[in-house]
Amino acid sequence: MSMLEQLSLEPTERSLDIVEQTLLAADWTCERSEDGVIHCAAATRWGEFGGMFVWRDEPASLHFSLTLDLRAPNARQGAIAELLRRINERLWLGHFDYWNDDGVAVFRHTIPMLDRDAPDPGEIAAVLAASLDAADQFLPAFNFVVWAGKSPAEAMAAVVFETAGEA
Question: What pLDDT is stored for residue 9 in this prediction?
Answer without folding.
Answer: 52
